[in-house]
Amino acid sequence: MKEALSLVQRLSAHPDSRCWFVSWSPNGTLLASCGGDKTIRIWGQEGDTWVCKSVLEDGHQRTVRKVAWSPCGNYLASASFDATTCIWKKKDNGFESLTVLEGHENEVKCVAWAPSGNLLATCSRDKSVWVWEVDEEDEYECVTVVNSHTQDVKHVVWHPTQELLASASYDNNICIYKEDDDDWECRVTLEGHTSTVWSLSFDATGKRLASCSDDRTVKIWKDCSSEDGQGDLSWKCVCTLSGYHGRTIYDVSWCRLTGAWLQPVVMTHYEYLKKMKLQIQSSLCFRWLLKWLKRTIKT
């Protein structure tokens, strides 16, 4: 099968240190990277070449673990091992530090914006998830601290159409949170992985959630809650992908090019694999799993 992807350019993003994460801006014109050198680098195109446009180096004292663009693309949030989250605002041809969010006791592992841009979530090795509210004056206020996990929280992600938040943890579990009387609470805990859950991804409809783990599996969870939004949240595992990787699966993402499946039926492994891409420890980049389809169809 012909490869769908080819190398365009290799970026020496963070010389002499590890590059921890990269994130495209919403319009795809900028790329943000972060690393062990405590900096964030903003990349853009000049002709056919990608070059470093800005280096944000005054925000953090330790490794920057994650960066996330706001839905409007005018703000960038960075999470660091120094237990803080920095908010950067686009200004002229660069970025300026807008504010520093403090409160976590240990490393901040992930940061994520809600689709509305009015809420921000952070998680940490201190086992907590924080929800921050953003007002029109660019003021950030912590509205909730949730301690539903018993171990390090690795990842947070927002539902694409509802104000629901999901988190993944070293305790092998996934928590899904919903606001109730101005307070965020864990409404359902998804159990099934046998080791650390590293990453989560909702499909475009929000009806399915993919999780990946140190147990070398990917699980697909389906929203079985009532359509009217009343009652308890209910999510069930409808598919487990195993046997494809021999090492930890660190990241998982639904394909945005083809969209989400809308059929009200449980998908086969073949259908799921066409929609997903994985990042594994032994891989240098995302890669499509199509080459495994023939093998999967037989099962």
TrEMBL record:
Can you supply one Gene Ontology CC term for this chain's record? cytosolic [4Fe-4S] assembly targeting complex
Sorted alphabetically, which InterPro entries does this protein's record hold?
A: CIAO1/Cia1, WD40/YVTN_repeat-like_dom_sf, WD40_PAC1, WD40_repeat_CS, WD40_repeat_dom_sf, WD40_rpt
PROSITE patterns the UniProt entry points to: PROKAR_LIPOPROTEIN (PS51257), WD_REPEATS_1 (PS00678), WD_REPEATS_2 (PS50082), WD_REPEATS_REGION (PS50294)
Keyword set for this entry? Repeat, WD repeat
Keyword Repeat recorded: yes
Q: How does it assemble?
A: Component of the CIA complex. Interacts with CIAO2A and forms a complex with CIAO2B and MMS19; the interactions with CIAO2A and CIAO2B are mutually exclusive. Interacts with CHD1L, ERCC2, IREB2 and POLD1. Component of the MMXD complex, which includes CIAO1, ERCC2, CIAO2B, MMS19 and SLC25A5. Interacts with WT1. Interacts with CIAO3. Interacts (via LYR motif) with HSC20.
Protein name per UniProt: Probable cytosolic iron-sulfur protein assembly protein CIAO1
In its UniProt entry, the species of origin is given as: Mugilogobius chulae
| Gene name of this polypeptide | CIAO1
